Model the fold of this input.
Amino acid sequence: MAEQKIKQDEIRIGENIRQARREKGIGQTELVRLLQLRGIPITRESLVKIERGIQHIQAVQLRALRDALDTSYDELLK
Done:
């Protein structure tokens, strides 16, 4: 079964991820490392594209980002 992807057309998920990451004082490289430790195969380049809204985010990535950033879906999907 293919992993569900979430489009960023109307919801600015990437901007919300970047804001949450910066508020926590976490760099992109550190966040990628945290995600990889959770078993999420992601590169810094992919995170940059997600934050810029040019790459759709997978549901499993969103879940891991929520956990790594200690935030809520509400904050990431607003």
In short: The chain has a mean pLDDT of 92. Strands lie at 5-6, 57-58. Helices lie at 13-23, 28-37, 44-52, 59-68, 73-76.
